[in-house]
Amino acid sequence: MEGYIWMVSAAGVPHRCPAIEDPKCASEVEWQALPCSSSSIRTLVATSSAAYAIDQHGKVLVLVLPSHVAIRQKVQLFANQRWYPLLRWMRPLPTDRGRFSDEAGETATNPSNFEVSPGWSWEEPWAVHRDSRRFDKEGWEYAFGFDGPKWANSCGRSHFVRRKLLKRHMRYTFTDQWVEMSDPTSSRLFVELSVCGLPGGENLLFALADDGIIYRRTGLKASRPEGDIWCALPKIQIKGFEVDDVTLIACSPVVPTLIATSWDGKLYYRTGISKSLPSGLTWLPMATPKDLPVTSIAIGTSALWCVTADGKVWMSRLETNNLKTEQHLGKIRLDSFQELSRGVCRLSLMASDQLLCVSNEDEKILIRSGISDNEPSGKSFERLVARTDQSDEKWMSVYAGACKLQTVPDYWTNAQTLQLKKEMIEFKKAEWRIQILDLLKTANERSWRAMKDVKAQVGVEDETNSEEIDVKRFRCQLRTATDAFKSASVVVTKDSVEINVEEKLTARIVHADILSALPSFSTFADEATRDNCHVALEDIIRAQLASSLRDRQGQCLWSTTANGVIQYHCLAELTSVQDGIENHVPIEKTKRLTVKGHFEKVEVGAQRCVWAVCKTGSVYALSSDFDPLDKEDGQSFGGKIVDEVILEIYEYQKWALFRGFVTFQSKTKGIGPWMDATTGFPVPRLYSSLRSRDWSWVDAHWNCEVEANPADEGWLYSNDIALFFDSDQGKVRRRKWTRRARFECRGPWVRVDAPPTGDVQVGKAGNFKSLFNTQHLIPNIKNRAFCLRVALTRDGHVLLRNGVCRRSPQGTSWSQIRTEDPMRCVAIGEADFLWAIGKDCRLMLLNLKNTDDFSRSEWEECSVQPQGLVQLLQTSRLAKIGLACPGDKVYLQVCDKLLRIDTEKGTVSEPYLLDNLRQVAADSRNRVWLLGELLTRVGDWFVAPYPDGLRTIIKIRKAERIPNRSMIRISAF
């Protein structure tokens, strides 16, 4: 979900509307009323996790939104004791720290008298924190004195004090309920609120009191939505004169910006607002449209809208810095504004600069249609379809700053669109239709196998090979070894693919030898030609697979390339069947197809349920109706895949005598003048062409990262082009250029509503029990086996997806698996065991089958906790790590290193270095797969023990690799 749009009716009742670009059912888009039982609401703002409102009495209220991840806080305090000779351990001396304190020694409340804030409740009683690396069996750690730098987990002769860490969790339980925000100054009344965005997704809350003073709420964060206290900002002073009576405030939902409007319609903005300086530096004046007084204002990412006292609506573009951390409001002039229309008020902008407002005429909510990067002012105002019980409802205000939609969905302005989509979805998910399709598919498979057997016995030639296939020719430009471009053509015939350079045959590839066709940057005359060429090559591979012999299990593999392209590997292809024994095609000769989409990671498990995660953290499930071997390319599916990446390229230069640093004329040690930072392939200089028509640029231009070396325009130096660039002098140098690009297309993927996710794991067995009864959501659910799906959010929370099966690959709901601390990585092992490594670098284990309530799950600490492993994880805290758990072995990936943990013998291997290791995974047969430069299946490991018996050395002994040869790359410069 891309956030909510919030509305306040004329009666003071707030409503919210889910911002869903492609809704799946009508219940998800209904406007939900959230009235406050004590009073009516006057104005409202929101973040992605909470809403803030001012009631009719001037009090600020907070409503925490329901989330897949519970808002929990850990409360910790130490119980301190001192040793008295000839006596025993007793309470500390009066000169020591208190009996209960925090780690710094500040006195804490007795645990029996500890009370929680309103809206919070305890989850469990106080417990002793146990960690064998730090505490003894009873939970104590010992030192010479309380201020000592070192604490030991066992008592020694020089230890005279000890402490025990007590912990307890509290949870916020008042979700979807309005709670008054605490304020020691109860007489203070507020009239306006505004939420300011910070980089990283954090927010600042500003409020305008009735005395004209602007306040900021301190301590505001997702885990503490009510914050701490109100802090006053300095009054506006311009040239020594103080500006009184501020009447309005406005903030950007993305960029840290605060604008204030005085009683006479003048505008002022606060400079220097940042995470480290949330209150900013000073106030400066800014221009208004033709110097007219302003009555309403809204600011987005690159647009500023306002309404003047004469009722006119104005818009101005904004300039921002490269990091999107500051808007240059001082550059706005009197003539920078564009006059648009009249008759609206209470403006609100999304992060994508889409505008919503309230009509003055009938008090309905309007949205500005046609807003884009090329046309930031849009085309016209259209009425938003109100999906409430009262069709004649009038509205007081609207807020869209928490909404992240890039475009306006059709069903927002067209009441008929949603009904048509709903009917189509109900038809596609009808049980009778699914059963008919399954029967047809089974009958078709049997008929195909029978026909193949008859042809093999009679010796009849395959009809598909004798069919005449039209010759297809695609014009392009190819880069030669000297980096020169030559005119070329790709000719697809019924038997082969020919590549002609300047009308001369350069290469000829037989259809049977084509294993894969990867889309990439192209040199074709136009994008349509490039895409058509790729489709033609994919059809050749698909036809080869359709006419080949395959095993009954339908073995397959899914992988992602370094630039996010999804590939389906058909491991089920057979060379022959003799005496009932199936002989598979060697893994290095397996064919693979490209699947529509762009993801960072893809996982497949039982019942062929495929899940994937994109760069933005969104989770997608593959539609159960999709089969890669079908010619259908996914365009007929209703799913929409959206992703955004930051493309990075390196510019290289070398030193030349009498000329200084110059650009390369050819490659040196495999490195050219411009190289892709992700794939390591050469690219053109600051190219503008993207891989396909599904891509578009977000940034207008390439941006040079000068922060690496501001004194020298971002250049870093080295004496060897193949070594690290980290010095300020050398014979070669490079710098990085970045540019954001957006991927958006229709495909066979269903969006799974989830918080920003870093990783997904899938179970290989399809017999996992569902936590909740979802009979009303999935027909015949009692007769179905569920697939285990676990997601790890970017902030370390572990979620379990319920109701995932073949008919419903996206599942029904999330359950949070309780963890003591955030997790760094998770993996599903054999027999539904869940392995994880926490932020404290401990290896943890949870048996999901023996857990009925995941909110109270108890993790077990694995007995294998060698110091070498802990040190490696601690030195790689910022590196991405991964787990794979085949059988009783755990394979841990840390950057390019791989470790093998034998949980049965209690040994851990030394790190095994692999080139460009990106992912380690295990299949249903407990075989290990490594994804790096090549895709490798490891059949066995050579294990040699160290003399200490606690460590081992591993080395790949039996490995099968999928090379990149026999693959046609659709190149594109």
Automatic annotation (TrEMBL):
InterPro entries membership: Beta-propeller_rpt_TECPR, Peroxin/Ferlin, Tectonin_beta-prop
Any one Gene Ontology cellular component term annotated for this protein: membrane
SMART domains: DysFC, DysFN, TECPR
Domain Peroxin/Ferlin: 70-129, 139-173, 642-705, 714-744
Pfam families in the cross-refs: Hyd_WA
The name this protein goes by in its record: Peroxin/Ferlin domain-containing protein
Organism: Caenorhabditis auriculariae
